[in-house]
C-alpha cells in the first residue's frame, strides 16, 4: 500500500510527465481537429506519463533507483514511454501507419531521449521539493538525506584544500 | 621554453607541500597542492550543461536537418565525425583545466603568449556580433509578431541584468540553462515521438555510417562552404570548447577547486583575489594519480552521455521532424535549398505545421527561439569570462581591478555593442552575420586543436599527458577543420558560404 508520504515523493516526477504530455495537446489543437479531440489527445498522454513519472519518484523513495543515475531510468522509460504513447494512440490517435511493433520500437528509441530530459529536470526539482516536505514527511527526509550526502561528497571535492 | 624535462615536482627543502612547484613555460610556476577526491563518475549535472547549451544550436536544429533534406541522410557521416571529434576535444580541454585549475588560454600563454592574444582577438572579432541572438529572435517574431530587433535588444539587456545581479554567476547560469535544456530535450522527444516513424530513425542513423559519401552537388562553390560551416557547427563551435575550461574551473572540477569563483557585479566586493596561476598535483604519488583517474572517468561520462548523447538526440529529433515535414509537402525541399535562413526556417516550420498541426510549427519555432536564448546566455557569459580571464592574467596592471569588474566590463561592452549593431548596423538580416561567424569559427577550431596538442604535451607532467592515439585524433581535428576551410577557399574561392 502506497501511503501519503510516498505519494508526496511522486509529485515532481508526475508534474514533469504530465507537462510533457500536455504538449501533445498543443500539437493536435489546431490540426483541424476539434478542441475536444485535442484535449483528449493531451489527456491520453499526460495521464500515463504523469503516472509513470510519479511512479519513478515513489521508487526513488523506496531505494529502487539511486538519485542522479541514468542507466536504470533509461530502461524504465524505454518501457513506460512506449506504453504511454500506445495508450494515447489507442484512445486518441490517427492509427499507427507502420504497425504496432515498429511503432513501439521507434517509441522506445525516442524514450531514451525523453529519459535524459526527465532525469535532468527531475534532479533539478526534486531536492527543492524534498526540502519543503522533509519536516512533515519521514520518507522525504530520508531521501533528502541521500541527496545531501551526494551533495556533500561533491562539496568536499570543491572545498578540497583551498589555498 | 620546453619544459618537458623539468622534474614534475622539484623537491626543495622540507616536506611542506607549499614549497614544491611545477614549472610550465616561462610563466609563474604552479605550486603543488592536493587533488580533491573525484565525485562519482555517474552523475547527471555538471559544467557540461554549458557545453550542451552552447553546442545544441543552429547546427543541430537547422543546418544539419537542412543538409539531410538536400543531400539525403547519408551526408550525416560528417556530423558523426564532427560531434565525436568534439567529444575528444572536450576531454582534452578538460585534461589541462582539471590538472591545473587554469583556463586553456593560460595554457596557451605558457606555450607562447602571442598564441593567447590570437584567441583574445579572434574572440572579439567573432563573438561581438549579435548574430546568434538574431536567429532565435527571428523565430520568435514568427510566433508572436514582435519585431525581432525588439526581442533581441530586450534579450540582451535581460542577460546583462541577470548576470550583474547574480551572487555567483556560475550557479545561476547552471540552474537556468539546466531547466531550459531539460525542457528542450523533453519537448523534442515528445514532438519526434508524435511525428516520426521507425523508418526515419533508421535512415537517419544508418546515414551516419555512410563514410565518404559526398554527392556531386555537394562539391560545388554553392554548397561546399555550407557543408564546411555545418561541420564546424556540429556540437560546440568556435571557441566554445575553450570557454568550457573556464566553467570547469568555476565548477571546482579537479584543481579548479583551489580557485575562487567569479561573482556578479552587485556582489563583486565579496570576490576573493584570483591567483595569477593555477596549481599542480603530485603526479608521482599513486594515491593522487588514482584520484586523477577518478576525475577522468567523471569527465568521460560527461563527454559521452551528456554531451555526445544529447547533441545526437536533438539532431536526430530535428532531422526526423524535417523528414516527416518533407514527406507531407515535397515542395518544401526547394524552399529549404534557398539561401535565406529565415525563409528556410519558416518553410520548415510551415511544413512541420502541415505534418502535424499549425501549433506544431509554432512549437518548432519556439524551440529555435529557446535554442537562441540558451546560446545567448551561454555565449555572453563565456565570452566575458574568457576575455576577463585573459585580461586579468596578462594585461599589466589589470590585477588592480577585480575579476568580477572585468567580467562586467566585457559583458556590458558586448551588450552595448550588440544593441548598437542591432539598431544601426548593417541591417541585412541575421543570416549574413551567422555565415561569417561559421567561417571564422572553423579557423579558431583548427587553431585550438594545435594549441591543445602543444599545451597538453608540453605543459603537463609526463604521467598525465595524453596518449598517442588521443594526439592522433586531435591532430586529425586540426587537419579536418583547417583542411576543409582552405580547400573551400582555394578550390572554390569562396570564403563565406
From TrEMBL, chain A:
TM region(s), chain numbering: 9-31, 37-58, 100-121
Organism domain of life: Bacteria
Keyword Membrane among UniProt keywords: yes
Keywords, ordered alphabetically: Membrane, Transmembrane, Transmembrane helix
Protein name according to UniProt: Uncharacterized protein
Organism: Nonomuraea longispora
Amino acid at each position: 500500500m502506497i501511503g501519503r508520504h510516498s505519494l508526496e515523493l511522486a509529485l515532481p516526477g508526475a508534474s514533469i510527465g504530465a507537462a510533457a504530455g500536455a504538449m501533445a495537446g498543443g500539437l493536435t489543437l489546431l490540426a483541424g481537429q476539434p478542441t475536444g479531440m485535442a484535449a483528449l489527445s493531451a489527456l491520453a498522454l499526460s495521464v500515463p506519463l504523469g503516472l509513470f513519472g510519479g511512479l519513478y519518484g515513489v521508487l526513488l523513495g523506496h531505494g529502487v533507483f539511486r538519485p542522479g543515475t541514468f542507466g536504470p531510468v533509461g530502461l524504465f522509460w524505454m518501457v513506460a514511454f512506449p506504453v504511454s504513447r500506445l495508450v494515447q494512440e489507442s484512445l486518441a490517435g490517427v492509427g499507427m501507419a507502420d504497425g504496432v511493433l515498429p511503432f513501439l520500437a521507434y517509441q522506445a528509441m525516442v524514450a531514451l531521449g525523453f529519459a535524459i530530459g526527465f532525469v535532468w529536470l527531475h534532479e533539478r526539482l526534486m531536492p527543492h521539493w524534498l526540502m519543503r516536505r522533509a519536516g512533515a514527511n519521514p520518507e522525504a527526509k530520508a531521501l533528502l538525506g541521500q541527496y545531501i550526502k551526494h551533495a556533500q561528497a561533491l562539496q568536499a571535492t570543491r572545498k578540497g584544500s583551498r589555498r | 621554453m620546453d619544459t618537458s624535462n623539468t622534474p614534475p615536482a622539484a623537491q626543495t627543502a622540507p616536506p611542506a607541500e607549499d614549497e614544491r612547484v611545477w614549472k610550465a613555460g616561462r610563466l609563474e610556476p604552479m605550486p603543488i597542492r592536493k587533488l580533491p577526491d573525484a565525485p562519482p563518475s555517474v552523475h547527471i549535472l555538471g559544467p557540461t550543461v554549458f557545453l550542451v547549451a552552447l553546442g545544441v544550436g543552429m547546427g543541430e536544429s537547422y543546418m544539419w536537418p537542412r543538409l539531410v533534406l538536400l543531400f539525403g541522410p547519408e551526408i550525416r557521416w560528417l556530423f558523426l565525425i564532427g560531434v565525436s571529434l568534439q567529444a575528444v576535444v572536450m576531454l582534452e580541454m578538460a585534461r589541462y583545466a582539471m590538472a591545473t585549475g587554469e583556463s586553456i588560454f593560460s595554457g596557451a600563454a605558457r606555450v607562447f603568449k602571442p598564441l593567447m592574444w590570437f584567441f583574445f582577438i579572434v574572440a572579439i572579432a567573432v563573438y561581438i556580433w549579435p548574430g546568434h541572438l538574431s536567429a532565435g529572435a527571428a523565430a520568435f517574431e514568427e510566433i508572436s509578431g514582435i519585431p525581432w530587433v525588439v526581442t533581441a535588444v530586450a534579450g540582451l539587456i535581460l542577460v546583462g541584468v541577470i548576470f550583474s545581479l547574480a551572487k555567483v554567476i556560475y550557479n545561476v547560469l547552471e540552474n537556468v540553462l539546466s531547466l531550459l535544456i531539460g525542457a528542450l530535450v523533453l519537448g523534442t522527444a515528445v514532438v519526434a515521438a508524435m511525428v516520426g516513424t521507425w523508418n526515419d530513425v533508421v535512415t537517419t542513423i544508418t546515414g551516419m555510417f555512410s563514410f565518404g559519401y559526398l554527392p556531386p552537388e555537394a562539391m560545388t562553390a554553392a554548397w561546399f562552404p555550407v557543408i564546411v560551416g555545418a561541420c564546424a557547427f556540429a556540437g560546440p563551435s568556435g571557441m566554445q570548447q575553450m570557454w568550457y575550461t573556464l566553467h570547469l574551473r568555476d565548477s571546482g572540477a579537479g584543481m579548479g577547486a583551489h580557485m575562487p569563483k567569479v561573482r556578479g557585479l552587485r556582489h563583486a566586493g565579496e570576490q576573493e583575489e584570483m591567483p595569477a596561476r593555477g596549481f599542480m598535483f603530485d603526479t608521482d604519488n599513486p594515491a593522487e594519480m588514482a584520484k586523477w583517474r577518478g576525475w577522468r572517468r567523471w569527465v568521460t561520462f560527461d563527454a559521452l552521455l551528456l554531451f555526445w548523447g544529447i547533441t545526437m538526440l536533438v539532431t536526430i529529433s530535428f532531422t526526423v521532424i524535417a523528414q516527416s515535414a518533407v514527406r507531407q509537402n515535397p515542395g518544401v525541399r526547394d524552399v529549404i535549398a534557398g539561401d535565406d535562413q529565415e525563409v528556410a526556417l519558416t518553410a520548415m516550420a510551415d511544413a512541420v505545421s502541415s505534418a502535424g498541426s499549425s501549433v506544431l510549427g509554432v512549437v518548432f519555432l519556439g524551440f529555435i527561439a529557446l535554442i537562441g536564448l540558451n546560446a545567448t546566455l551561454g555565449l555572453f557569459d563565456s565570452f566575458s569570462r574568457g576575455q576577463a580571464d585573459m585580461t586579468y592574467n596578462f594585461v599589466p596592471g589589470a590585477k588592480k581591478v577585480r575579476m568580477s569588474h572585468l567580467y562586467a566590463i566585457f559583458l556590458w561592452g558586448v551588450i552595448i555593442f550588440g544593441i548598437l549593431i542591432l539598431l544601426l548596423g548593417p541591417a541585412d538580416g541575421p543570416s549574413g552575420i551567422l555565415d561569417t561567424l561559421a567561417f571564422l569559427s572553423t579557423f579558431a577550431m583548427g587553431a585550438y586543436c594545435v594549441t591543445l596538442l602543444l599545451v597538453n604535451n608540453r605543459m603537463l607532467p609526463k604521467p598525465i599527458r595524453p596518449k598517442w592515439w588521443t594526439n592522433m585524433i586531435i591532430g586529425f581535428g586540426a587537419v579536418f577543420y583547417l583542411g576543409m576551410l582552405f580547400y573551400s577557399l582555394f578550390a572554390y574561392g569562396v570564403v563565406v558560404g
